[in-house]
Amino acid sequence: MKDFLKKIKSVSRGLWIIITAAVLLQLISCIQYFYTRRSIENEARQLATIRLENANLLVEAGMSSIESAVNNVSGFVKGNLESPEVMQGIARGLLEINPAIEETGMLFVQGYYGRDGKPFHPNASRDKEGHISSTNLGESGFDFYQRPWFKNVVESGESGWTDPYLSQTDGEMICTYSTPLRDSSGIIVAGFY
After folding, report:
1. Which of its termini does the chain have fewer beta carbons within 10 Å around, N or C?
2. Do 125 and 171 touch, CB atoms closer than 8 A?
3. DSSP-derived 3-state class of residue 106
4. pTM score of the predicted model
5. Cα–Cα distance between 148 and 94 in angstroms, integer?
6. Which is nearest to 39 in space by CA: 31, 23, 25?
7. Exposure b/e, 167-180, CB count within 10 A at least 16 = b
8. N-term to C-term CA, the chain
9. Could you give the CA distance from residue 120 to residue 111 in angstroms, rounded to a whole number?
10. 92-103 confidence digits (pLDDT tens)
11. 3-state secondary structure of 72
12. What pLDDT, in 10s, does the model give residues 101-114?
């Protein structure tokens, strides 16, 4: 009987050692899982932040390029306000030298060129294949004077970007950079985008 009790104590002690080791192993696995998960989440956040920062830099570079192109050409437009026939060519030329710009134009305030109440809105746009077409959107009958890119610059007198909106010409979601055009006396005569 003594031998039997010794064997039971020995087995019991061994079983406790195995159970304790299993519990400790499980605890170590849980701790390792927690820290590994936290490390992976931190690395994923850092990678996402880096990717977002890179995307933001690309967008800002593109926006800056568009702003510069429009601002640079606006001086040429101002110098040719007495020649409305060249405005279409200016819009087309801006697209030809700036592949990042899909559409550009000028909307002159009502009556600026005395066109019997019809808006003068020379415009050039690039289609998906890269072909450029020119038109006077003032002939379309759409009230472009209510578009945010025009209203914002005329009301504030400042250049700027619009919030996203649907384009009247192709139905796509777009943002527009526009700047006011002023005549020699400083009066805003058009919105240029």
Report:
1. N
2. no
3. strand
4. 0.70
5. 21
6. 31
7. eebeeeebebbbbb
8. 102
9. 9
10. 999 999 988 999
11. helix
12. 999 999 999 888 86
How many Å apart are CA 1 and CA 8, to the nearest integer? Answer: 11
Q: What is the DSSP letter of 47?
A: H
Rounded Cα distance, 87 and 76, in Å: 10
d(CA 169, CA 132): 13
Sequence-ordered list of residues with C-beta below 8 angstroms from that of 29, at least 6 positions apart, any chain: none
Structure tokens at 173: 């979601």
Non-local CB neighbours of 154 within 8 Å, separated by 6+ positions: 109, 180, 188, 191
Cα separation, 178 vs 66, whole angstroms: 10
**Residue 65 identity:** S
Radius of gyration of the chain (CA): 34
Residues paired with residue 192 on neighbouring β-strands, in sequence order: 106, 179
The answer to whether the beta carbons of residues 147 and 111 sit under 8 Å apart is no
The tokens describing 54, both together, are 């890179």
Q: Taking a C-beta distance cutoff of 8 angstroms, is the pair 150, 106 a contact?
A: no
Question: 100 with 67: CB under 8 angstroms?
Answer: no
Q: Which two tokens stand for residue 180?
A: 């006011």
Give the integer Cα–Cα distance in Å for 142 and 136: 11
